[in-house]
Write a structure and sequence with these properties.
- It contains two helices and three strands; from the N terminus they run αβαββ.
- The protein has 69 residues and is α+β, with helices and mostly antiparallel strands.
């Protein structure tokens, strides 16, 4: 899941308003300090994911950007 700038894949996405930003954060990285960096920016944890048995547990975080029109 990309965490950087949104890349448009079709004409609708190019004109659709961006309403949220998201990040997938390694919950074990730096004793959870990475997650703590995102929280003051308005990100909130909404769940966890582990894409494969070899991957770390990732925390899904989201923050509002602006309201859709």
């Amino acid at each position: 899941m990309p965490t950087g700038p949104r890349h448009c894949t079709n004409a609708h996405e190019a004109t659709a308003p961006l309403v949220a930003a998201y990040a997938m954060v390694d919950a074990s990285a730096g004793d959870a300090k990475v997650r703590q960096v995102y929280e003051p920016w308005g990100y909130e944890a909404i769940g966890t994911s582990r894409p494969s048995p070899e991957s770390p547990v990732l925390t899904a975080m989201i923050r509002p950007v602006r309201t859709a029109t």
